[in-house]
Design a protein that fits this description.
The chain is mostly helical. 67% of the residues lie in helices and 3% in strands. The strands form three sheets. The protein has a two-stranded antiparallel ribbon. It is elongated and about 145 Å long. The two termini are 63 Å apart.
């Protein structure tokens, strides 16, 4: 998709204003709804962003940050009266917040209320000395004094007015021989829906991908068509794109369908992961409970599979023992037959050559048995003939029994192969490499020791003797299953219901990954178990890695530290939060640290009242 360069240029200062403003917001809570709303704003998905901010305001009317960002959205839509209404609501929660007052001043100025704008800007300058907002307010006042109207505000209003009319997206069309260079063309949502349903494979892929750029309100009328297409579509990439589009509509019907995919036995695990991604933005307590049940069933299915495999192995071992017993009996029979065969052969070998039917050389005398007092008994031709017939019968019997043993050995080998297959099902497969969890890659930071006792990698609980460990092969269905399980664990941690911990612990025993261990520690801390708190604190003092999810990961760690300090005293951790609130390079972490400190101060202030 190609976006207009002028539009991006106009959008950039607004985005910067949003994120810089967040640095001064210390009391309002940076919840998941707020984070998702900001993310949608950076992509210019204003309707989607508004949905998240309104959802937060419904559940928490005193969250000034939600009101502030709704004001920002209406400002960008050029609805300055609405923008001012929400800026004022934000100010009611935090009267001296510099970002909130700066937003109100900008709205007053855009509406032509110069005196009120001047009053708001002056308030920011007086109450937030040395901050970005104060410097910005000074610039605004300077322009008001010199021109009577802030030219930059006018430009912002003009850009916002244009944004009101934007209900279409710009799509890069496939190059055709007659089209010449690629050109951007305007495409409606209805046209893309048709392309996604009826176009050739390449067009279906592109159209289904571009549909995600529309708002939930634009996509919702086509929801039944998307669900119908999922049952018919053969291309897996198109199916995954459509799943994301279904999830974006955020309706009950969409949620139910995505859960149907997650719970269905006929979908591959990577497709289920896409369904989970579609659900992750619209989770409710009911949805969280359903996710917990899915995770529990995954673990129970693994355990049941192992029990069934153990039963199969026992049956196979009994069958192998039976076949080995048969082989033993037949080998004894062969040994007896071979003894008889040797006795007859000896008798025939002791006969004179003439009696045995052979011509004797001149002067030949029959041999005597060694140590025998009498010459060897001479057999008649009939006796010799009978012995030879017995010898042939014995040879045939031996060959028949040897063939029987060969067949039994093949059966034993086949059973051993089948046994190995079931033994593999008993192996817990732990990943020591890279795992993908909701689109974020986690790479192991430490190497596995050269010698690891079977079933007990570092810091891994001791397993039952009947269960060994192995490692997940990259790209396998096992890896996809592991990614899904770890992703659900991560989501359940964010929701923070301690009663889910037992299910999460069982799942971790089945699907653990070395590179995800700190994430698991964060989940435990989010649910009130702080065994990993030192490692989590240590992560905050590491250099920022290239992982795009690192910022929010650290913000969640900061929140956990705040919760920990509400129950335990630790001066070092409190000072670390203070340092992050002032000096962390990322505004999201700064805001999280300020929120954590604010909660701690509130708790400390409440202590005397509680004693009284």
């Amino acid at each position: 998709m190609i976006l207009n360069k002028k539009f991006l240029k106009a959008l950039f200062p607004v985005i910067c204003f949003i994120f810089f403003s967040a640095g001064s917001i210390t009391a309002a809570e940076m919840t998941d709804n707020i984070k998702k709303g900001i993310s949608k704003m950076t992509l210019n998905r204003l309707d989607d962003a508004l949905t998240y901010f309104q959802r937060e305001l419904t559940s928490n009317p005193r969250n000034g940050l939600a009101s502030f960002y709704i004001g920002e959205l209406y400002y960008r839509k050029a609805d300055f009266s609405k923008a001012l209404e929400y800026y004022q609501k934000a100010i009611e929660t935090e009267p001296d917040n510099a970002a909130f007052n700066l937003g109100a001043g900008s709205a007053y100025l855009a509406a032509g209320q110069i005196d009120r704008a001047t009053e708001q800007f002056q308030r920011v300058i007086n109450n937030a000395v040395g901050t970005y907002e104060a410097e910005r307010a000074k610039q605004m006042l300077s322009k008001i004094n010199s021109t009577g109207r802030d030219k930059e505000i006018v430009e912002k209003w003009q850009n916002a007015e244009k944004n009101v009319q934007v209900e279409r997206i710009v799509e890069k069309q496939p190059e055709t021989p007659s089209a010449g260079p690629m050109q951007a063309q305007i495409v409606s949502v209805e046209a893309l829906v048709k392309d996604a349903r009826f176009g050739p494979e390449t067009k279906r892929k592109e159209a289904s991908r571009n549909l995600f750029n529309f708002s939930s309100s634009q996509l919702e009328p086509y929801l039944s068509q998307f669900i119908s297409q999922m049952d018919k579509e053969k291309n897996e990439d198109v199916r995954k794109n459509i799943l994301l589009v279904i999830g974006k509509t955020q309706t009950k019907q969409a949620v139910d369908y995505l859960f149907k995919v997650l719970e269905g036995p006929d979908y591959l695990f990577d497709t289920k992961m896409v369904a989970l991604q579609g659900l992750s933005e619209t989770l409710s307590p009911e949805a969280a409970e359903r996710l917990k049940n899915i995770l529990d069933k995954m673990v129970s299915s693994k355990l049941k599979m192992r029990e069934e495999a153990k039963g199969k192995i026992e049956t196979i071992e009994k069958r192998i023992d039976d076949l080995e017993s048969q082989k033993f009996v037949i080998k004894n029979d062969i040994a007896k037959l071979q003894t008889q065969q040797q006795t007859i052969s000896n008798k025939l070998n002791m006969q004179p050559a003439a009696e045995a039917g052979f011509a004797q050389p001149p002067g030949f005398a029959p041999p005597e048995a060694p140590g025998a007092e009498k010459p060897v008994e001479t057999l008649s031709p009939e006796q010799i003939k009978e012995l030879r017939a017995q010898l042939r019968t014995l040879e045939n019997d031996i060959k028949t029994k040897e063939a029987r043993i060969a067949r039994l050995e093949k059966q034993v080998e086949a059973l051993k192969t089948e046994k190995t297959k079931y033994e593999q099902l008993l192996v817990k497969r732990y990943s020591t490499g890279t795992v993908k969890v909701l689109g974020v890659e986690r790479r192991a930071s430490v190497e596995t020791p050269e010698q690891v006792p079977p079933g007990a990698p570092p810091e891994m609980p001791v397993l039952q003797p009947s269960v060994q460990t192995s490692f997940v092969q990259a790209g396998s269905e096992e890896e996809q299953e592991q990614s899904l399980a770890l992703s659900i664990i991560r989501i359940l941690g964010r929701i923070g219901r301690p009663e889910h911990l037992s299910v999460i612990e069982r799942a971790w025993e089945e699907y653990r990954a070395n590179s995800f261990e700190l994430d698991y520690g964060l989940v435990r801390a989010q649910l009130g178990s702080y065994e990993y708190i030192e490692k989590l604190v240590s992560r905050l003092q590491d250099d920022y890695p290239s992982d795009p999810g690192e910022v929010y990961f650290r913000a969640e760690i900061v929140k956990v530290i705040g919760n920990y300090l509400s129950k335990h005293e630790n001066q070092d951790y409190a000072e670390l939060l203070g340092y992050l609130a002032e000096s962390d390079p990322n505004q999201v972490v700064k805001v999280a640290a300020n929120q954590a400190l604010s909660k701690i101060k509130t708790k400390e202030a409440d202590k005397p009242a509680q004693r009284t």
